[in-house]
Design brief:
With about 725 residues, the protein is an alpha/beta fold. Strands 7-8-10-9-11-12-13-14 form an eight-stranded mixed beta sheet, with helices on both faces. Strand 13, helix 28 and strand 14 form a beta-alpha-beta unit. Helix 4 crosses helix 6, helix 7 packs antiparallel against helix 8 and helix 7 packs parallel to helix 12. The radius of gyration is 30 Å and the shape is flat.
Length: about 725
C-alpha cells in the first residue's frame, strides 16, 4: 500500500477528484458499464435475446449503484475481476438461470480491464485539462503583467544577463501550451475500445463481431480501432509519456519558483499563510513547489515502467504492470498541476527586490552590453579583454562598473556619459524578451474562443479560507457596476455574447461560481447562501458598495437571495430563466448520482437539449459546442455540490421581500424553468416586469441580441419594457 496515496499523506499527493476517478468503486462502476453495454450490443445483433440483455443490464445497474460496497468485498479476493463477474453472473442467475450464461459473452477479462481503464483515463484527462487550461490562463495574465519587469537571468545559479520576469512566466506558458496540444492530440488514439476476445480475433461472435464491436464503441463514446490492441500497449505508454513530460515542466516551474522564493533571493513570495515544509525557526520550501518537485522526481521511473510494459507476448498480454503504475502517473500529474495552479494564483512578485538583485554585481551583469558597443570601435578581442579586466577591477575594489569605465580612456574616447548610462540600464539590454513574450501570448490568444478582453483588472482570483474565486472586472471605473452570475455547469465566458454591449454602459464583474470554471472546488455540498456570500466577498474585496445584478438559472437564485437578505447591495435585478424552487428533489438526486458514477459526459447531451432548442442546435453548431465544452469541463465534485444547492433551495415565501426593480426573463421553450414558473416568479415580486423570449433555457446565448438589448434598456431605465 503506497502511503502517498493512502492514509495521512494522501491529501498532499493525490487530487481528490482524480483519486475518486481511480477509486475501487469507480473502477467497478466502469467495468459494469462496459458489461451492460456489451449485453445491449449483443442483443441488438441477435446474439442474445432482448430479455437477457435487460436482465444483465439491470444487474449491472444494481452493481454500479453499490460499487463502493462491492469494491470492499472484491478487495478481499485474489482476483477482483473474476469476483465481480461471478457476482454479476450470480445476480443474473437469481433472475434468469439461462441469461446468466451470457454474462461477459465474447469478451475476456483483459478486454474489460483495458476498456474500463480507458473510461477512467478519459474522466481523469477531463479534470487535468481543466486545471491545465486554468494554469495556462494564469500564466498568460502574469506574462502580460510582468513583460517589462526587470529580473536577473541566471545560468548555473549565477547572474548572466538581465531578462524580464514576464519572459520566465512566458517560457512556462509556452511549454504548457505544447503539452495541452499533445493531450488533445492523443485523445483519438487513447480513447479506443479494446475488445478482441482471447486471441484478438472475436471468433466466438462470428459474422456479427465487427458490428457488435462498433455498437459497443459507440455506446461507450469511444473510437473503434482498426483492430484490437491488447498486445500493443503504445496507447497507454503514450499517455504516460505525455503526462510525464507535463509533470517535468511543472517540476521545472516549481524549481524556478522555489529558487526565486528562497531567502537570499526573495524575488517571489507565495500567498501569505501558504503551507510550507518548514521548521518552527525557519521558513521552508513552499508546499506547492515541494509536492510538484516530488512528483517530477517520481514520475520518470513510472513512465519507464510503462515503456517496459510494451514488450508483450504474441497475441495476448501480461499487463498487470500497468494497473498500479498508470493511475499513479495520472494522480501525481493531477496533483502537481493543482499545486502549481495554486502557487501561480497566489504568487506575489517583488519587483523592487528584483531590481536590487540586479544591482548586486555592481554593473557587471551588463558588461556584455558595453563590450558589444565597443566592438565596432576596438575590435571584438580588445573589447572583450578590456571588459574582462574592468570586471576584475570591480570584483577587487568594490567599485561600480560605471566608475571603473569612467577611468578608462579607451572607453571614454568612444562612449560618452549618456551612452554609458543607457548601456548600464537593464531595460536597454533585454534583447528580444518583449517580442518573445508577445509571440507566446499571441499563440495563447489564438487558442481561445475569443480575443483577450481589454480593460481587465489584473486581479484574477479572490482568495479566502474557504474558496478561491476566479473573476474578471472590466470597463470604465466611472460606470455603474453590473454583476453577472452563471448557470450551473458554465463559466464566466457564458456572458461573452453580452460583453461588447454591456461594456459600453457598465463596469462588469463576472466570476466563476465556487466549484466551476477556474474557481476552486471546496468540499460540498454548497448552499445558495454560500454562493451569495461569495458575491458579497467579491464586492467587498473590490470596494463595490452597490451594484446591478443579472443572474441566469442558478445565478438568478443567488440574486434572489441577495436581494432578499442584502437589499442595500443590489440596485436593479435581472432574473433570467430561474425559479425560487426547482424540484422535485428526486430529479436532482438522480442527476447527482448519474454524474457521480459516470462524470459530466453522462449528462452533456441531455443538458444541451434542455438548454437550447433543436433548431438552434442544428443551425448554431459552433456556439453550442462552446457551451457543451464548458459543461463537459466542469469539475464533477463542483457540479454535484452545486446540484445540492439548487435542490435544497426554497425562496418562495421570501419573494415578497424583494424591493429592487426587477426584470424576470423566461424562455418560451425552456424545459428547465418553464414559462409558467418564470411568470409566477414575476407575479410574486413587487412591481417586477416580465419578458418572454423565443428560446430555451440559455436565453442569453440563443437570442443574445434581444436578451442584451432588453437587459441594457431595463438597467438604464430609459423606457418601459414591452411584454413579449
Amino acid at each position: 500500500m503506497n502511503p502517498a496515496f493512502n492514509g495521512l499523506m494522501r491529501p498532499a499527493f493525490s487530487r481528490k477528484a482524480t483519486a475518486h476517478v481511480f477509486s475501487n468503486a469507480a473502477w467497478i462502476a466502469a467495468m459494469v458499464d462496459v458489461e451492460a453495454e456489451l449485453a445491449k450490443a449483443l442483443a441488438r445483433h441477435g446474439v442474445i435475446d432482448d430479455s437477457v440483455a435487460v436482465q444483465i443490464a439491470d444487474c449491472c445497474r444494481d452493481a454500479s449503484a453499490n460499487a463502493a460496497e462491492l469494491a470492499d468485498r472484491m478487495a478481499a479476493t485474489d482476483n477482483p475481476v473474476d469476483a465481480l463477474l461471478q457476482h454479476l453472473t450470480t445476480a443474473v442467475a437469481s433472475r434468469d438461470a439461462d441469461a446468466a450464461n451470457f454474462v461477459h459473452w465474447g469478451a475476456t477479462n483483459l478486454d474489460l480491464i483495458d476498456t474500463a481503464m480507458v473510461l477512467q483515463l478519459r474522466a481523469a484527462l477531463d479534470l487535468i485539462e481543466v486545471d491545465l487550461e486554468a494554469l495556462i490562463g494564469l500564466l498568460a495574465q502574469r506574462s502580460e503583467q510582468y513583460r517589462h519587469t526587470a529580473q536577473a537571468g541566471r545560468n548555473g545559479m549565477q547572474q548572466v544577463l538581465p531578462v524580464t520576469f514576464g519572459l520566465k512566466t512566458a517560457s512556462w506558458l509556452d511549454a504548457l501550451m505544447r503539452h495541452q496540444q499533445r493531450l488533445s492530440a492523443i485523445r483519438p488514439r487513447l480513447l479506443a475500445l479494446q475488445f478482441g476476445g482471447a486471441a484478438g480475433i472475436l471468433a466466438s461472435l462470428g459474422a456479427n463481431a465487427l458490428p457488435i464491436a462498433e455498437e459497443l464503441a459507440s455506446a461507450l463514446d469511444l473510437t473503434m480501432p482498426d483492430m484490437p490492441w491488447l498486445s500493443q500497449r503504445d496507447r497507454f505508454a503514450e499517455v504516460a509519456s505525455v503526462l510525464g513530460m507535463l509533470v517535468g515542466s511543472l517540476g521545472k516551474m516549481a524549481g524556478d519558483m522555489a529558487m526565486l522564493s528562497q531567502i537570499e533571493v526573495a524575488e517571489l513570495h507565495l500567498q501569505e499563510g501558504a503551507a510550507s515544509l518548514a521548521t518552527p525557526t525557519s521558513p521552508g520550501i513552499p508546499r506547492e513547489c515541494a509536492v510538484a518537485l516530488s512528483a517530477a522526481q517520481r514520475v520518470p521511473a513510472l513512465v519507464a515502467t510503462m515503456l517496459a510494459g510494451m514488450m508483450q507476448e504474441s497475441e495476448s498480454g501480461t499487463v498487470e504492470i500497468e494497473w498500479d503504475t498508470l493511475p499513479h502517473i495520472v494522480m501525481l500529474c493531477a496533483t502537481a498541476l493543482e499545486q502549481m495552479r495554486a502557487a501561480v494564483a497566489g504568487m506575489s512578485v517583488d519587483a523592487t527586490r528584483m531590481r536590487t538583485n540586479l544591482d548586486l554585481t555592481r554593473g557587471q551583469i551588463l558588461a556584455e552590453a558595453v563590450m558589444v558597443a565597443l566592438t565596432p570601435k576596438l575590435g571584438r578581442g580588445a573589447a572583450s579583454l578590456l571588459l574582462r579586466d574592468a570586471c576584475s577591477t570591480v570584483a577587487r575594489s568594490g567599485l561600480h562598473l560605471r566608475e571603473v569605465l569612467d577611468q578608462l580612456p579607451a572607453v571614454t574616447a568612444h562612449l560618452g556619459p549618456a551612452e554609458l548610462d543607457r548601456l548600464l540600464e537593464p531595460a536597454s539590454y533585454y534583447g528580444q524578451s518583449a517580442m518573445f513574450v508577445e509571440r507566446v501570448l499571441q499563440t495563447h490568444r489564438q487558442t481561445l474562443h475569443r480575443p483577450l478582453s481589454t480593460g481587465v483588472l489584473n486581479m484574477p482570483t479572490l482568495e479566502s479560507s474557504s474558496v478561491n474565486l476566479n473573476y474578471q472586472l472590466e470597463g470604465s471605473a466611472d460606470a455603474p457596476c453590473l454583476i453577472l452570475s452563471n448557470p450551473l455547469g458554465a463559466t464566466l465566458d457564458i456572458w461573452a455574447p453580452q460583453m461588447p454591449s454591456l461594456l459600453e454602459h457598465f463596469r462588469v464583474l463576472r466570476y466563476d461560481t465556487r466549484g466551476q470554471g477556474q474557481s476552486s472546488v471546496p468540499e460540498g455540498p454548497y448552499t445558495i447562501a454560500q454562493m451569495a456570500g461569495d458575491v458579497l466577498a467579491l464586492m467587498d474585496h473590490l470596494g463595490i458598495v452597490r451594484s446591478h445584478y443579472c443572474g441566469l438559472s442558478m445565478g438568478g437564485m443567488t440574486g434572489m437571495w441577495l436581494a432578499i437578505n442584502h437589499p442595500a447591495r443590489i440596485d436593479r435585478l435581472v432574473l433570467a430563466n430561474t425559479a425560487p424552487l426547482l424540484g422535485p428533489q428526486s430529479i436532482w438526486d438522480e442527476r447527482i448520482e448519474q454524474v457521480r458514477q459516470h462524470g459530466m459526459r453522462a449528462i452533456a447531451e441531455t443538458m444541451m437539449d434542455r438548454w437550447f432548442t433543436r433548431d438552434f442546435q442544428q443551425h448554431a453548431v459552433h456556439q453550442v459546442h462552446i457551451v457543451h465544452d464548458m459543461l463537459l469541463h466542469t469539475p464533477v465534485a463542483g457540479y454535484i455540490a452545486g446540484c445540492h444547492a439548487v435542490r435544497d433551495m426554497d425562496l418562495r415565501d421570501s419573494l415578497v421581500n424583494i424591493n429592487a426593480p426587477t426584470l424576470v426573463i423566461g424562455g418560451r421553450h425552456d424545459k428547465s424553468t418553464a414559462p409558467a414558473q418564470t411568470r409566477r416568479l414575476a407575479e410574486h415580486i413587487n412591481g417586477a416586469r416580465y419578458l418572454e423570449l423565443n428560446a430555451a433555457h440559455l436565453t442569453n446565448w440563443e437570442v443574445a441580441q434581444s436578451f442584451t438589448a432588453n437587459v441594457v434598456e431595463f438597467l438604464l431605465a430609459r423606457s418601459a419594457l414591452p411584454v413579449h
